[in-house]
């Protein structure tokens, strides 16, 4: 136990009181604490270092009031509107001390505060349909697959064990690489005085936004005996040299690069809140920078490191794009590619098998998520006197060296592969060196003007992404409202149910949706399998959490007294929504739409299992072009997709000043 | 809220309309590479204005799995199949999945090239030979050269689990005295790999990751013409051949358009489109494309189709067992 630790602890204990003295925020409890209670696992930092924002007292309208007035107002309960309820009869028939009775009383109290009766059933219904139903169906199929012999026999095949081993090895290796890269960038950006932090963060976030199969393709084009880049530079390895990336370590390396931003985000939020005055005190007391780092920074960063590592591990377990492109040529199967190839050699027991394999993935992921949950619970960032803008460590002479190192890493993991991708989209055939004589734009011509799949895929991806992004708001706005206004077990349950489909690997979700919708729908008698609607339904489920996050932050940072005032003035729910709440959360809703759009437009894992004639997505089109041996076309389409991603991220950056704190992952 | 809902509704309607549009068009499942599939479809559309075509490409084995999964779900999407080999078509026919159609164009073909009941018609001849990188030390002339020590760890081939041509190729070589499954075992011992489809083999050899590959003829010959550092050999022992048959599904929603598509592929005009892409045409009296030896010099090895239909599952297992792929 060090001195610094003690300081931190005592601060932690006194934190709430302190913050109140600093001008109460008007919250019944801190939004951060609510979030951690509500089980917002990966969400809490996946899209936005929410904590970084919340570590400061929320900037609400009341914070602008003079302190005295604010203190006077806090703790004053406004009287509820007199309200006639129609469930009096129910109340009498229920045991007053039972859980149901309490729930009902709280329901009545809510309705008294002007929440419409349809809100809760609507949100619950949506969540049940999108999260509980498919996952229950999967669990059922997995269990019955175990009981009914055929699939169970296959699960114990050596191939399954080999895939399990490969999955664990690559995900663990990827986690190590992610931790190294992610913490390097997080420590540098959050604690030192390097220049160009925004551009560094922005560039470092890119690998997460670029679809994994594009990353894999770019790296393959960058290395190996035929790399146009290496050939042009005269550095290509000799004939017969294996492509080094077609290996377990190649897959692990790329998983690491792909998921490093997750570690970066998990850490940055915590580091941004490290106690500057504590560090300063330690420095004054004569502690060297290394000692300060070891005794103050590292203990605070540990939960973030564990959580980030766990998330990187889980993401690695479920990744399909990278092992799909790197593993299949080398005969290396991971669990997600095993599901894919089992589905691609369809037999009588296929559905049972893939249910079993994806249940296995789900179990491993759940383990990882639990670790992450444990690491994050009990984290309290409100131990800060001032998390000022001044860097904790000024690097002095070393600054140039650190900046060079960071730029070199970015050049290696981002710039070089993208250059290779562009180069391979410009050569006319495999194995031809790129120079001004051989350069041709024919791949782009073929992709843009001849291949109908491009247009189909673009149309589908845009339709799916925009419908999911806009449609989800209809669920997430009411859900976020409900969860901020209503505390307790039910809100927590909803939060967890929304979280699960996003936290689980996409491949598991895709299998769950196949099982749910392969049988004809009741009443209509049509099967959704093979239509675009099954992909859309899976997207709705998968991105619910992404859509919720920014909207939730906006509701959190809003002063409830605004709505209260409107209610006292007699405005009904829809009127309050229209005139008070929606205008205030509009920017966050916009960000939510763009974020979902960005992720959905590049999605591969879900659609790889669900596509059919005419419902290919961009991700599927790239994968399929590469598979048919047209990697020049695959590269050309990938280049266009990367440009789309950068454009969308730039658009978000452009709107940054209108957005609530912590919505954009690359901003502090 | 209202504007949001109407935006969503509009998006949904747009989606419905576009799905409705697919319902009007002919759906083709094919194993041709994307560029060829697109060119075939474009030529067909030019000859039959007003017919829309939606197509999907995957390796034969995979496209069949997709189709079977759809049939299982009671929602087969495809109208027409254009896949690698007649063996798969024969199996579909025996399962009652194909429609019988007597095409008037069949007159220009050997009777051996189409099904007597009109369930499927061969459209071209695709042989599998050896492709090698021009910077390779040894210039292979026959299949046996691939098990020489000079080729150790430098050979790759498509997997029958993906490619229909690869399955027929394995079944053909396995039945040849002096080759057989022992030849494949020797290949595996020599470090040969088998994964993915023909596209991957072309990529590996052209890019120099591997020096030698088993590959379909047109890919190698076409890529060489584009400037890639590869050569193609018709091995001395002979080559296996598939004939890329076309067939109409029993469940087809657009039967008329499907029949037109079959007729077009078999017609003189359709065959010339195939030649332009670098395929050996199946129709009598149509010349071979550039870069091929004369038709009579290509020695095609026989394959026992009936045995192949019966033994496909077992052969796949044998192959997987040798190469330990799954």
UniProtKB/TrEMBL annotation, chain A:
Organism source for this protein? Sinorhizobium chiapasense
Q: How does it sit in the membrane?
A: Multi-pass membrane protein
Which SUPFAM superfamilies does the UniProt entry name for this protein? Answer: MetI-like
User: Per the record, a Pfam family?
Assistant: BPD_transp_1
Would you identify the family this protein belongs to, as annotated?
Belongs to the binding-protein-dependent transport system permease family.
- The organism sits in which domain of life? Bacteria
Keywords attached to this Swiss-Prot or TrEMBL record, sorted alphabetically, are: Cell inner membrane, Cell membrane, Membrane, Transmembrane, Transmembrane helix, Transport
This protein is called Iron ABC transporter permease
PROSITE patterns found in the cross-reference section? ABC_TM1
Q: What is the lineage of its organism?
A: Bacteria, Pseudomonadati, Pseudomonadota, Alphaproteobacteria, Hyphomicrobiales
Where the protein is mainly located, per its record? Answer: membrane
Q: Enumerate the residue ranges of region (Disordered).
A: 1-35
Cross-referenced PANTHER family, in alphabetical order?
INNER MEMBRANE ABC TRANSPORTER PERMEASE PROTEIN YDCV
Does the entry feature the keyword Acyltransferase, yes or no?
no
Report the transmembrane regions from the record: 117-136, 168-191, 198-220, 245-267, 300-326, 346-371, 405-430, 462-483, 490-517, 523-548, 580-600, 637-659
Q: Where in the cell is it found?
A: Cell inner membrane; Cell membrane
Q: Which residues form the ABC transmembrane type-1 domain?
A: 164-372, 458-652
From TrEMBL, chain B:
| Native species | Sinorhizobium chiapasense
Highest taxon, organism lineage:
Bacteria
Please list every transmembrane segment annotated in the UniProt record, as residue ranges.
none
Record key words, sorted: Periplasm, Signal
Q: What is the lineage of its organism?
A: Bacteria, Pseudomonadati, Pseudomonadota, Alphaproteobacteria, Hyphomicrobiales
What is the name of this protein? Answer: ABC transporter substrate-binding protein
CDD domains to which the protein is assigned, alphabetical: PBP2_Fbp_like_2
Checking SUPFAM superfamilies in the record gives: Periplasmic binding protein-like II
Q: Which residues does UniProt assign to the signal peptide?
A: 1-23
* Alphabetized Pfam families for the sequence: SBP_bac_8
